[in-house]
Design goal:
Blueprint lengths: L4 E10 L2 E11 L4 E5 L6 H9 L6 E6 L2 E2 L5 H7 L1 E3 L12 H9 L6 H15 L14 H14 L4 E5 L7 H16 L3 E5 L3 H4 L5 E6 L2 E6 L1 H6 L1 H8 L8
This protein binds adenosine-5'-diphosphate and magnesium ion (MG).
Length: 243
């Protein structure tokens, strides 16, 4: 079976800066894949290229058997690409439920149906009791979950999560990990950017390490964390103990 997502020789230049350099990755249906790497490695840029926020300078992107390289973001969302933003983009002056309805309207044109879908997603993400508070009144961990809820409401085939577990307490991060597993168990494929290896490695089926815009290493998490290239580029020697 073909991969759900494939990038082929993707480059992104911002003036003289090369943010993505010949990036070819693939994500199979039903996988949880971790995209990791130091700050500035080009992870969010690659997400933007996959989601269709930017067209790549060069290369192509295939999603669900179709070349989407030049397809606008809204159309990719219709095809099943759902994403969160590293910087939380919830509509702060709207309630939690209304934020999720915005996502649900992508696939439900009847408001009653969109509302029902939004309630279902709030139950699923553990936000049901917060449905009628303003997004601005949520604590940071809940705002991250709201981002995930809004993306889920679009009924994606592929969910792109950009650092949704970063900056959370260990307990909150474990709740997030459980939610990602639950999402995958519904049949949704997950590609997640995380900076914190300790959180993401036990969760993912496969890890892809970006460094300086390039794919440095990819493989099973246990192999990736032991790879000397990864240790020197990303973990730093102080983390190598016991690896
Ligand atoms: N819109 C942009 N314009 C110019 N430079 C950018 C833009 N977006 C990202 N960059 C640069 O591209 C590089 C990769 O950034 P990013 O993809 O955000 O990395 P990561 O998410 O891995 O931390 C960084 O050097 C960043 O400053
Ligand atoms: Mg980033």
């Amino acid at each position: 079976m073909t991969a759900l997502l494939e990038t082929r020789g993707v480059w992104q230049r911002f003036g003289g800066l090369v943010a993505n350099s010949d990036v070819s990755i693939s994500v199979g249906r039903g996988e949880i894949v971790g995209l990791i790497g130091p700050n500035g490695a080009g992870k969010s840029t690659l997400f933007n290229l996959i989601a269709g926020v930017l067209p790549p300078t060069q290369g192509s992107i295939l999603f669900d058997g179709e070349d989407v390289t030049h397809m606008p973001a809204a159309e990719r969302c219709q095809r099943g690409v759902g994403r969160t933003f590293q910087v939380v983009k919830s509509f702060e002056t709207m309630t939690v439920i209304d934020n999720v309805i915005v996502g649900a309207l992508v696939r439900n044109t009847v408001m009653r149906e969109a509302r029902r879908k939004a309630h279902e997603v709030l139950e699923f993400t553990g936000l049901a009791t917060r449905a009628h508070v303003l997004a601005s009144d949520l604590v940071p961990a809940e705002k991250r979950r709201l981002e995930v809820a809004r993306a889920l409401a679009t009924e994606p085939k592929l969910l792109l999560l950009d650092e949704v577990l970063t900056g959370l307490t260990p307990t909150e991060a474990q709740t997030g990990v459980a939610l990602v597993r639950k999402v995958r168990d519904t049949g949704i494929t997950v590609l997640m950017v995380e900076h914190v290896m300790e959180i993401v490695m036990p969760l993912v089926d496969r890890a892809i390490v970006l460094d300086l815009g390039k794919v440095l290493v990819e493989g099973k998490p246990a192999d990736v964390v032991r790879d000397p290239k990864v240790i020197s580029a990303y973990l730093g020697d102080r983390h190598a103990v016991g690896a």
